[in-house]
Hints:
Chain A is α/β, with parallel strands linked by helices. In chain A, about 40% of the residues lie in helices and about 20% in strands.
Amino acid sequence: MTLLRQAIRDDADAGIRETAEFIGPQGTSVFGYSHLPSSRTHGGVVVCSPIHAEFIRNYRREVLIGRGLAAAGVAVQRFHYRGHGNSGGQLEDATFDTMVEDSILAAEHLREKTKVTRIAFFGTRFGAIIAAAAARRFGPSPMVLWDPVSDPVQYFRDIVRAHQIQTLKSRSRGGTAEDLFDVLERSGSIDILGYVITRSLYMSAQSHSLEEETGTEPKPMLVVRLGQDSRGHRGLSDLVDRWRTRGFDVESLSIGRTEAWWFTAGALLAKEALTEPVDVSVEWLIRSLVRSEVDA
Amino acid sequence: MIEDAIRKFIAEELSSNGLGESLADDYPLLDRQVIDSLGLFQLVGFLETEFGVEVDDEELVPGNFGTIGDIARLVDDKRA
Lengths: 296, 80
């Protein structure tokens, strides 16, 4: 029996080809979805998705990013981390390091497939730290970061806060944040609003930060805050300032009102919340990749 | 007054049932479902930004968020 590992969709009107396929070894193979221009390719972008509720919340925007860039001549690789979505492996096996490995695998696959030499990274929330860590292997790659998580410890605390708020709303009795972290460390996982948070990811992420993973080599960056200043943005402005001091070319902007990543997973995004960050990011990535092509 | 600022925020940003402006300080916000989960999330963000306080996870209990009066008391205590 032949194992079908690839499915193709051609969109002649948009001038793009989309391919769903499995990348890497059987068992831990990563599900990938590429958006390729049918004409000349000006570079590639790897999309590092957020996880849990935020993955669902951002899914459509990432599809639009892929299609928008491909239509403008930029190849895009989206993928699911192992243990997530359609990819192989178990959720408990996914760690910070395996997520970075999967991102690098996706980037190398895109490079091999399209022969592009310029690769940019696009990461949202937790995917932003993963994108930053993976991008370091590819030189001064341009990066677009949406609502980046700068501190994983705070990220997990904010997820637990979502649980606390839900508990408050329902007036049910729930444990304290410390109780939940204790359960996570003892039992290996906790359920937060229907999403499984694993000890392996929680523990493996503790020692990382966006600043450290971004490294010291200056690179062009676009930092997009989806919403006005919020708890999730604390410290980000200072980090942007430090990057600029170190010679990074950082554009930073806020779009829209509050993006409450954990409370609106089932709700439709308002049109401007859907398209505005996509349009801004697509335009910036095209500019960066074409400019770096000219510079080269 | 803290209560008025909270009432205004609920009326303008969170409440969809038209009760906002007329909410009494002791009206049961949670029991009567005036605010949903997203609203609570936004309300906590509003308190932290508007009044310069930090609401700890342990403080997210009905006793602190049951009414506008409860919320104002929490803010007042934290600012003291």
